[in-house]
What we know:
Elements: E1 8-12, H1 14-28, E2 31-32, E3 34-35, H2 37-41, H3 45-54, E4 59-62, H4 65-73, E5 79-82, H5 88-96, E6 100-103, H6 106-115, E7 121-126, H7 141-149, E8 154-160, H8 170-185, E9 195-197, H9 201-206, E10 214-215, E11 238-250, E12 255-256, E13 261-262, E14 267-272, E15 290-293, E16 296-301, E17 309-312, E18 324-328, H10 334-341, H11 345-350, E19 357-360
Helix pairs in contact: 5-6
Amino acid sequence: MTDSPPRAWAEIDLSALRQNLRIARERSGQDVMAVIKGGAYGHGLLKVAQLFDEEKLPFLGVANAGEARKLFEGGIQTQPYILGATLPAEREEITARRWTPCLCSFEELEHFNQLGRTNPVRAHLSLDTGMGRGGFLPEQLGAALDKLRSSSGIQLTGIGSHLPVADEDSAFTKSQFELFDSLVESIPRQPDHFHIHLSNSAGLLNYQSRTTNMARPGLLLYGISPIKEHQSLLDPVMSLKSRVSVINNLPKGHGVSYGRTLLKRDTKAAVLGLGYGDGYPRSLSAKGTQILLNGTLCPLLGRVTMDQIIVDVTDLPQCQPGDEAILFGKDLLVTGIAEKAGTIAWEILTQITPRVARVYL
């Protein structure tokens, strides 16, 4: 007996992932920390980390010690960088395994200093230049540096900040770059191999710093640009697909799905085997959402259910059970799907559930 094929799957184009990394390197002219938190934005943490491991990057950006542990247990050699503040219970493992945290508070600084007494922890300093999510405020930088100079348990190896509106507010982002650069320039001595980083994907594409030597792209690596005019540079990595399970010929006035959306014409309705239980948002219902089936865009009918959706294939000459449907991918961008769902591409990608098989090309 052979295993039956999945009803829904996500094809992950690893060659596109590598190509997008090349673009990030070329556009930034700097080292690249690949951000792979959230299961590599839904693309599969270990498989993506293995590809980036081959590229000899300085860091892989993860959200917490749990994600770093998965890299460690999977044999990944590239250094995990913990993005954001750490919990007290995480810090002993981070120190023991020599992962790199970013210091966001005096409490973290003091605790890591204690933990690193016999084996100093390599850490970066996080500056809050406008994100409001953690890090030292500009007026606290001097005190933080003074504290670090007397902290034998910490070796400061970098400094960074984060951009909250690089894809929305150019004026604020430019002022943020100026503030960050000025703060970095005020640090009297920086050791060799000191990493200075600010740009996320949007920052990398649209702005320049005079001090940074590393960028931290996330979404860009997965082939989606946060700034529409740059999308042509990138190659989408994930294509979400499903299959037609059955086709029903329904009369005008017949109800479709929960809530009974009434058909306005005699309709050939194809049922696909995925729904919000797979991460395809229920909020796409009644939004003019389309699905690509046999090269033709076909409208979604009725509400998205947990395991199935219904698609109008009345105007599709050839369609039968087993045919592939594309929910988003290279020819139907996830950004457009996200807009209809009232959310962002980041959320759509990361909410594709484990029930959806990942198929690596």
